[in-house]
C-alpha cells in the first residue's frame, strides 16, 4: 500500500503530465470541426477549459512536493511549450491560458519529508475524484465522436486513428488515477510490460500522424517519420512477446530506450521547426510539442525500468 507521501507525490506528478495532455486533446478536437458542428466545438471547448482549471489546481499544490526528476524530464513542459501555445492560439483564435505554463516553469521540486500530510492528502483525494469524473466524460465524448466519424455522420480534420489514439490515452489515465486512489503499490516488472506495450504503440502512431501531416515536399522528414513508425511497430510486437514470456523484457526496454531517445530528438527538432515556421506541414505547433512531451515521459519511465531490470 502506498504511503501518504507517495500517494500525494505520484498523483500530482501524474496530473502535471496527463492533465495537460487531456486539455490539448480537447483543443485538437475543438479546432478540427467544421462550423456546422458547433455543438462538438462547444463540448470540446468545455473539456479543454475543465482540464485547464484542473491543471491550475494541480500546479497550485505541487510546488516543493513533486520530484525534480519529473520537473526536469521535459514531460511537464519543454523549452518550446510556451511558444507553441502562443502560435497555436494565434492560428486558431482559441484563448490558451499561457499563465498556466508560466506557473509550471516556476515549480520547484522537492521530496516530502514531514509525515503531516493529512490536509494535502485530503485535497489530492478530492482532486483525483474530480479528475476521474472529467476523464469519464471526455472518454464518452471521444468514443461517440469516433463512432460518428467512422459512420460518416461528422467530418473532422483529425484521423480516425488519432481519435482512437487519444481515447486510449484517456482510458489509460483513468486507470492510473484509479489505482492511485486505491493506494496500489507499483509492481515495476509488471508495469514495464504494460507501459512499454502501451507507449511503443503510441510512439508508432505519433510517427504515422507526423508522416501524414507533413507537406509532400518534406520527403526527408516523411521518410524519417516512416522509419520510426516501422521501428516502434516492431518494438510494440516485441513488448507483447515479452509479456508472453517469449522474449526478455530487459532487451525490449533497452531497444525501446534507444529508439525513444532518438524519436525525442526528432520531435524536438520538428517542434522547433514548426515554431520557427521552417517546416511545411498542416501540423499545429502545439501538436509537435505535445508528442515531444509524451516521448520525454516515456523516456523517464524507461530509465526507471532499466534501473530495476
Descriptive notes:
It holds the Pfam family DUF2935. This is DUF2935 domain-containing protein. It comes from Clostridium gelidum. The chain is mainly α and 309 residues long. It folds into 2 domains: 1-67 and 109-185, Protein of unknown function DUF2935 (Ferritin, Up-down Bundle); 187-309, Protein of unknown function DUF2935 (Ferritin, Up-down Bundle), CATH 1.20.1260. The chain contains 11 helices and no strands. α6 (118-150) runs antiparallel to α7 and α10 (249-275) runs antiparallel to α11. It is globular and about 55 Å long. The model has no long low-confidence stretch (mean pLDDT 95).
What are the defining features of this structure?
CotB-like; 2 domains; DUF2935 domain-containing protein; Ferritin; mainly alpha; 11 helices; 309 residues
Order of helices and strands: HHHHHHHHHHH
- Approximate shape: globular
Described by strand count, sense and barrel closure, the largest sheet is: none
Give the name of the CATH architecture of the largest domain: Up-down Bundle
Q: Uncertain regions: pLDDT < 50 for 5+ in a row?
A: none
Overall number of strands: 0
Distance between the termini: 22 Å
- Give me the secondary-structure category: mainly alpha
InterPro entries: CotB-like
Protein name: DUF2935 domain-containing protein
Pfam families: DUF2935
Q: Briefly, what is this?
A:
This is DUF2935 domain-containing protein. Helices cover 74% and strands 0% of the residues. It is mainly alpha-helical.
Amino acid at each position: 500500500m502506498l504511503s501518504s507521501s507517495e500517494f500525494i507525490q505520484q498523483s500530482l506528478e501524474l496530473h502535471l503530465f496527463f492533465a495537460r495532455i487531456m486539455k490539448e486533446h480537447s483543443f485538437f478536437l475543438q479546432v478540427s470541426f467544421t462550423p456546422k458542428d458547433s455543438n462538438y466545438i462547444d463540448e470540446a471547448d468545455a473539456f479543454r477549459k475543465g482540464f485547464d482549471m484542473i491543471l491550475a489546481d494541480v500546479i497550485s499544490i505541487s510546488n516543493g512536493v513533486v520530484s525534480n526528476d519529473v520537473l526536469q524530464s521535459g514531460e511537464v513542459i519543454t523549452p518550446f511549450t510556451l511558444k507553441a501555445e502562443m502560435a497555436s492560439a494565434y492560428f486558431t483564435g482559441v484563448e490558451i491560458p499561457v499563465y498556466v505554463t508560466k506557473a509550471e516553469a516556476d515549480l520547484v521540486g522537492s521530496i516530502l519529508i514531514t509525515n503531516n500530510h493529512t490536509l494535502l492528502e485530503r485535497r489530492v483525494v478530492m482532486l483525483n475524484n474530480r479528475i476521474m469524473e472529467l476523464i469519464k466524460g471526455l472518454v464518452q465524448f471521444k468514443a461517440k465522436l469516433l463512432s460518428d466519424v467512422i459512420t460518416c455522420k461528422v467530418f473532422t480534420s483529425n484521423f480516425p486513428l488519432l481519435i482512437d489514439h487519444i481515447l486510449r490515452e484517456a482510458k489509460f489515465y483513468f486507470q492510473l488515477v484509479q489505482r492511485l486512489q486505491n493506494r496500489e503499490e507499483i509492481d515495476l516488472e509488471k508495469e514495464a510490460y504494460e507501459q512499454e506495450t502501451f507507449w511503443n504503440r503510441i510512439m508508432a502512431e505519433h510517427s504515422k500522424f507526423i508522416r501524414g501531416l507533413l507537406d509532400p515536399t518534406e520527403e526527408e522528414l516523411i521518410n524519417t517519420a516512416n522509419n520510426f513508425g516501422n521501428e516502434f511497430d516492431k518494438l510494440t510486437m516485441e513488448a507483447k512477446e515479452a509479456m508472453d514470456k517469449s522474449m526478455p523484457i530487459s532487451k525490449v526496454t533497452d531497444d525501446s530506450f534507444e529508439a525513444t531517445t532518438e524519436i525525442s530528438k526528432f520531435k524536438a527538432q520538428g517542434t522547433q521547426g514548426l515554431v520557427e515556421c521552417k517546416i511545411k506541414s498542416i501540423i499545429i505547433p502545439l501538436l509537435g510539442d505535445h508528442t515531444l512531451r509524451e516521448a520525454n515521459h516515456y523516456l523517464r519511465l524507461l530509465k526507471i525500468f532499466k534501473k530495476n531490470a
